[in-house]
Amino acid sequence: MTVFVPPLPEIRFVLREIAGIERLATLPGLAHATPDLLDAALEEAGKFAAEVLAPLNAVGDRHGAVLENGVVRTAPGFKEAYRTFREGGWTGVVFPEAYGGQDLPWTFNTALADLWNAANMTFEICPLLTRGAVEAILHHGSEAQKRLYATRLISGEWTAAMCLTEPQAGTDLGALRTRAEPRDGHWRLFGQKIFITFGDHDMAENIVHLVLARLPDAPPGTKGISLFIVPKYLPGPDGRPGPRNDWRVLKLEHKVGIHASPTCVIAYGEEEGAVGFLLGEPHRGLACMFTMMNNARLAVGHEGLGLSERAFQAALAWARTRIQGRIDGRPAPILAFPDVRRMLVRMRAQIAAMRALCYWTGSFVDRAARAADPAERRRAADRVALLTPVVKAWCTDLAQEVTHGAIQVHGGMGFVEETGVAQHWRDARILPIYEGTNGIQAIDLVGRKLAMADGRLPWDLVDELRADLDTVPGELRLSLRQGLERFEAATRYVQGASEEHKGAAAAAYLRLFGHTLGAFLLARGARAAAAGATGGEAWPGLARFWCAHLLPETLGLLASVSAGAEGLDPALLDERASTVPIS
Questions:
Q1: Segment 52-64, tens digit of pLDDT
Q2: Which of 65, 146, 268, 458 has its Cβ near the most Cβ atoms within 10 Å?
Q3: CB of 431 within 8 A of CB of 65?
Q4: Annotated active-site positions, please?
């Protein structure tokens, strides 16, 4: 396995020139987030990622997490790495100082997540989920819950897990059956949850579950769901972990990848019932949980970015040293061959576009939370809503392509575990499924986000991108204008289509959206590099490559969007379905 080299120059370039991190420091409460402070923190994060987390990545893949006599144990080195991570203050970077955090920008945390995921994505999953739980508790919890739970999650003493899915209730959360009953002055939970990532482990002294369940008087469907805080150990009056709560891990799933991340099946209430504490209002649990889920959806996009960076580095190192074939009669590394360079440049362009999109979206998260003008906060929140499904789905779809390409560059050696590159491909495969499949993200984009604010949100973005046409490098303008026109045509079609056609067009529309926006963000980077910005020397070439090789894909995507549900005849499946046995 190759050594991970943190791409700090490129990260700094995107933070500065695409996300505008220095301008974010002018927002209320961020005056302390000076360039010098963030740069020093980024340097330390790079060292931790490269020296501590990256060497554990292959270890975690080989050993995995195990369940022994009811105890979940993480892979060798993970517990010690988490202790160092917590002691370094990395668990509370973005949260309010009043609860023990450092009050730094979410945009900066996006850059940290980029590093953590590239070094060791399975490790980062645990802090990722904890950050989402803190967000939910800070937004919906009582002051007592914030003081008891949020402070300890922010400090990293405790971690958290999100507990939604049941055997019969995946996407359809309205079908969940876990129930909460009033007993002895407490809510007692009974039921089973599956696919609970880091639902139990040995890295923290307590683990807090946020569990969706139904109260006795709950109406049917999603309107009857409440959210509960269900700790592994019930806190005593001093906040220290006390008696063991009534939930346990039945098994760990055996998965294609992310072996070091324990994916738990959890049983609640096998005895007197698991004690839970209501978070937010009764029957409003799904709204509370979506605070955590939306945070997690952006974070899964960051996972796709990080894994892609790691896979690309491995592929580039291999291509530089693998001698195969001849150029001008002499043995040559495969990097000398145009098709290999095509694959590698495509990967690097995709990573640059993903990084730009993730960081740029992070800047709107900060503006939505901190801008002094309420109208500006609202506009920024709308932009986050529009971009969240694109960050999640487009970045994780591209991660499938980049990790696949990394194996292809390795040739036969990529298909064996010895080189380590196959792990990135296996680990990446969960990402289009996590936190609502990418198909669901696409349907959310065309069905809900494009309808918000009377359908204005994509057109506000179009107006902003159209203004860029006057300032980006001239050789990019024709391609960008054509790409933007296709995006406009696709948006008009989807906004006016029936639900059937809208749903059928959703996936192609989201990809077209990402490809178009990625082109413009690369063009912004090319503009900054042309003006002398450091760290972006490759961006003019990457932008030209995108306009020549990836943006033309939007022509076919527009045709697919415009076809809608044409050809989706159920009869094409019914005939075969009658012959396929159901096991």
A1: 999 999 999 999 9
A2: 268
A3: no
A4: 435
Residue 50 has pLDDT above 70, yes or no: yes
Helix, strand, coil percentages (3-state) for the chain, rounded to 5, are: 60, 15, 25
Tokens of 188: 């007692």
Q: What is the 3-state secondary structure (H, E, C) of 441-504?
A: HHHHHHHCHHHHHHHCHHHHHHHHHHHHCCCCCHHHHHHHHHHHHHHHHHHHHHHHCCHHHHHH
pLDDT band of residue 222 (cuts 50, 70, 90) is confident
Residue in the structure block whose two tokens are 């995995």: 64
pLDDT of residue 174: 84
For residue 443, the tally of other CB atoms under 10 A from its CB is 19
Joined tokens for residue 518: 């990625």
Angle at the Cα of 352 from the Cα atoms of 341 and 411, rounded to 5 degrees: 35
CA torsion sign, 284 to 286 to 289 to 293? negative
Q: CATH class for domain 159-284? A: mainly beta
Q: Alpha-carbon distance 293 to 362, whole Å?
A: 16
* Angle (nearest 5°) at CA 40 between 37 and 41: 85
Rounded to an integer, what distance in angstroms lies between the CA atom of residue 243 and that of residue 232?
A: 9
Model pLDDT for residues 516-546, shown as the tens digit of each residue: 999 999 999 999 999 999 999 999 999 999 9
